[in-house]
Amino acid sequence: MKKGYVTIKTVAKELNISVSTVSRVINKKPDVSEETKKKVLTKIEELGYIRNVTATMMRNKMSKTIGVIFESEFDPFFSEILGGIEKGVSKYNYRMILMNTKLREEEGKTAINTLMEHRVDGIIIIPTDPNISYIQKLVEKKFPIVIIGRNYDKFDVDEIYTDDYFGGQIAAEYLFSKGKRKLLMINSSSENSASMSREKGFISKLSEMGLKCTVIKDKNSDYGEVFNIIRSLYFEKRCYPFDGIFCFNDMRAFAVINALRSVNNALLKEISVIGYDDILFSSIFSPKLTTIHIDKQKEGYEAVKLLTQKITGRRKFTKKKILKVSLVIRET
Questions:
Q1: Label partner for 10 (CA 20 to 30 A): which of 118, 146, 211, 216?
Q2: C-alpha neighbours within 13 Å on the C-beta side of residue 322
Q3: CATH number of the domain where residue 310 is located
């Protein structure tokens, strides 16, 4: 038979004292003698009593739980943001329920339903798809939501994202400073705010310097597709079609570098590649990747901070927070 949880009543019965006295000791209330405190705490340890936090929270009409929805099969970028969210959750004394929709809208709806069934106090979303219509009803109800990494003008919710337009500009400046003039951008085919802003910033800065670039948008957003695109561009070519390549993110940059290496390792000395995100692998990969740095831990942490402000009612208005990005120069 499955053993039940030890309750306050169990502790009180064992000591032959009132339930309210045990409760006062557990909640560190005054007016309890030191002798009684010692007896209660000893008995709690002996019986293995664990406080029923859920019951307490439901009495206070707050679950102290945050739901987190992200949309990826695998991407180190998200794990670093989640690390920041975990720090925020710990700091503000919340719990977290994590849901992965795997880029499927129907799973987004299911994730929302699951989180609401668990009575979460607020939700953080880390989307990649421009369509997150599954949050519409919650937005209309003014339910606390924070979106990380994207700007959705159609939704009146808190957002935290980076200055992607400026990121595109500094990528262009870097390649220009390296003497690169035949430029390519490998961008995401998803028409989200990040991909569009990075592309616009890149093209705008090149235009200021009298340069143009080619933009290729991969349809499937995967490593293999980018690898094949680059390999086909350079395979058996006597002259290089591009001498500088800017990628939407670091994973695409890794695919570009490995594709160039597969054609001719010497290409890596002639062609500059720059990524975006500065995930951990960027400093480990060989050659070490030059990239645009995003403080992903801060992005996650600040998202929790924004959400708790709305949950507790300390802030009523909607806030959009834009974080700075910076260039990290390595070996590419």
A1: 118
A2: 9
A3: 3.40.50.2300
